[in-house]
Amino acid sequence: MRDFSSDHRWLSLNTATVRKQGDLTAIIEACARHGIRAIDPWRDQVATIGLERAVRAVRDAGLELSGYCRGGMFTSDAARRTEVRDDNRRAIDEARALGAPCVVLVAGGLPQYSRPGSAASKDIAQARAQVDDAIADMLEYARAVGMPLAIEPLHPAYAADRACVNTTKQALDTCDRLDPQRTGALGVALDVYHIWWDPELMPQIARAGKDRLLAFHVCDWLVPTKDILNDRGMMGDGVIDIKSVRSALEAQGFSGYSEIEIFSNDWWEKPMDEVMRICIERHRTMV
Amino acid sequence: MRDFSSDHRWLSLNTATVRKQGDLTAIIEACARHGIRAIDPWRDQVATIGLERAVRAVRDAGLELSGYCRGGMFTSDAARRTEVRDDNRRAIDEARALGAPCVVLVAGGLPQYSRPGSAASKDIAQARAQVDDAIADMLEYARAVGMPLAIEPLHPAYAADRACVNTTKQALDTCDRLDPQRTGALGVALDVYHIWWDPELMPQIARAGKDRLLAFHVCDWLVPTKDILNDRGMMGDGVIDIKSVRSALEAQGFSGYSEIEIFSNDWWEKPMDEVMRICIERHRTMV
């Protein structure tokens, strides 16, 4: 396993971690101050400052990207299918412009939450089938322009409203169905927050192998978790044995960034520089 | 699938559903008023009125039990092992006295939460191994007195602090290891709240078969869920397709109670009779 204790060369910052403290320009400037050399920006943050300005800011700062957040929200009723497809193609185009190595996919849950206004459904099996179909469709476009797609399994607590892909096995099953040749066009983004509890995690990471391991996200699971969406912990403040997960990925040959993504009402209230300073410290000690 | 629309013969009330509104005596009296013929009481509620009085109240009311909540919390450090074993043996003795058909087991999460004071650990694999060992030990005692044990997989959101058994597959793997002959001594308690999201749910219910299906619990998953522990929904108010799960159990030959267990700050604030009236109504229409 790589030694992170003496520098933060392999730290990437998911820009949602400090989304309340400043816009993407401010975040990129702060990354420069802290020697952070990679980010994973969110589409809405890019849109706020404009794609061209975001591309320039990333380039001028010499930043790499560890991913682009996010495509997906595939589940909808029939009336919204075209909207979903076009939206996801735009995500790919933006990712290319920004030089991202992959688009992270959050599948969407039941259609009424994924694409509001869609007819309500309780059929999660149907939602999952729809996700597979939509990824197959998106993959055609992504392959044509050479942009890998990384399916992110989300914690089962989000199955209804955010993603009906809830285990690493489920995401890899989709990868195997749609990209059996392991071309590199389709893989997974694994976030310790979503997967740490899974009894099948270690064998599934081995099954994924280097070809499928496109991104690795870290934060921590707090006890108690006060808010199901926005109470993620700083690495080391919770119960996840992060090093054992990173070790398993690296045993498969993963050598990419360790991307910090913390949605937290608490951390959003702290100054951006303080958050980045602590991220770096914990990256060295707890990741 | 059995038709529940015209009566509530197969409704059981888990007494935690109205735990804030009255003690076990008051709950049993209310069940009589509403024609509810089965309950699943909690140990602390029994202890509050005393075991003998609880036994008498259940008998006098002509109530059946659909389970006894709960044994488990198996994970601890070495100093607490004897305490854990004795505690679980007492749960079995109480269940026998009350005429329960099984003791429901909530495994416990990491030891510091399962048995407070235990040394802190982040090793969930070790916790799981400890759970298996402790169930094996408890099963010896349970077999000797003829009390079935029902392992309840809990939602992955509780993996750290309540139960590290988080999928039906995982619970059944333990059953197969410890009771390969399917003697009826060991099975699962399936609660839709904990399992509805699982992509492998339907094949695992089929794998369980009638021998292993010892209890069935219902409530609903609300969107948003405001509190990870105490914001469960009344059946019909959330996203779970409850009928499809019950249908799958009954296809295996399950013919027991549909037990309503709702931990909810909202429902605990309503009068007991109102809660029971709505439970009955939703049992007929949504279960």
Name the biggest interface: A-B, 31 and 31 residues
> How far apart are the termini of chain A?
11 Å
- Going by CATH, the homologous superfamily of chain A would be Divalent-metal-dependent TIM barrel enzymes
**In CATH, what is the class of chain A?**
Alpha Beta
CATH-derived architecture of chain A = Alpha-Beta Barrel
Q: What's the number of extended β-strand segments of chain A?
A: 9
What's the topology here?
2 copies of one chain form a homodimer.
Chain A (H helix, E strand, L loop, with lengths): L10 E4 L9 H11 L3 E3 L2 H7 L1 H10 L3 E2 L2 E5 L8 H18 L4 E4 L4 H4 L9 H22 L3 E3 L16 H11 L7 E6 H4 L5 H12 E6 L23 H10 L6 E3 L11 H15 L1
Summarize the structure in words:
The structure is a homodimer of 287-residue chains. Chain A has 287 residues and is an alpha/beta fold. The first copy, chain A, has one domain (11-282): TIM Barrel, CATH 3.20.20. Helix content of chain A is 43%, strand content 13%. Chain A contains eleven helices and nine strands. Chain A has helices at 24-34, 43-49, 51-60, 81-98, 111-114, 124-145, 168-178, 192-195, 201-212, 242-251, 272-286; strands spanning 11-14, 38-40, 64-65, 68-72, 103-106, 149-151, 186-191, 213-218, 258-260. In chain A, strands 3-2-1-9-8-7-6-5-4 form a nine-stranded parallel beta sheet. In chain A, helix 4 crosses helix 6 (124-145) and helix 7 packs parallel to helix 9 (201-212). The radius of gyration of chain A is 18 Å and the shape is globular. The model of chain A has no long low-confidence stretch (mean pLDDT 98). At the A-B interface, loops of A face loops of B.
